[in-house]
Amino acid sequence: MTAFLVFAALLALVGLWVVLTTNSFIRARNKVDESWSGIDVQLKRRHDLVPNLVDTVKGYAAHESATLAAVTQARTAAMNAGTGPERRAAEAQLTGALAGIQVVAEDYPELRASESFRALQSELSELEDQIQAARRIYNSNVNSYNTRIQLFPNSVVAGKGHIARELFQLDSPAERGVPAVAF
Hints:
Blueprint: H1 2-60, H2 65-80, H3 85-107, H4 109-113, H5 115-150, H6 154-158, H7 173-176
Helix pairs in contact: 1-2, 1-3, 1-5, 2-3
């Protein structure tokens, strides 16, 4: 009888551990999803800002159509991208295309002096900072989630139901470089 009670108590403890571990995985996964939503909101704001920026530049630099077309195409690709690697690649392409607008602005002093361009440029800069902050939060949550499901004995419970997530990293070597500042 005592052996049965000990076995039942051990079985109950293992069951409790499995439930608590599974619940911690679910909480961590939901935190990852929530932080991805934060990135998604900031990216949508950037996608909404790009047409205004392109229209402003068009007014001053009409013959820079290749740069403006590249920005427009990159925005469309980013808006239509799925999730994961495809989304990251499209967003990296949009970031690179937006850098092209900055180069165009350097060639047109009247554009740089435009109040609307400076306001849009400032808003874009703020958005990029917010995207970076959202990426850091997302990557931190992904790292925590991945570590939790990969550690033993948690990995036994994680099984196939909890799959490791990918970090949102910069794919473009140009994005990793130090930006040039000209005075």
